[in-house]
Amino acid sequence: MSDCLFCKFVSGELKTEIVYSDDDMIIIKDINPMAKNHFLAIPKQHYKLLSEATADQMLALSRMLKKISSLSGLLGLESGYRLVINQGDDAGQSVFHLHIHILSGQKMGWQPA
Length: 113
Hints:
With 113 residues, this protein is of the alpha+beta class. The protein has helices spanning 5-11, 55-70, 72-75; strands at 18-21, 25-29, 35-43, 82-84, 100-107.
């Protein structure tokens, strides 16, 4: 999507610090971290919500989750981490391109329920 910030990161139109990239996703540092380590895993294909994902996009999301689990050393997540997907305005989603927050370390701001 031409007006989507995350699509612009994926395409390289806008620069950001990409800490990991593969066929399915990029992982970047969050510019407004809510924990000591706060990354965003962004699918390369655009869709806003889980409910909009195709079967192929859900398979790619599964691969993303598996890959995130194998990147704990690279991302500094050895002592544990949490994954968060906000879905819609009321859940705090501010960029409407599905993405996964990867958080670890000292808790700041957001607290899990």
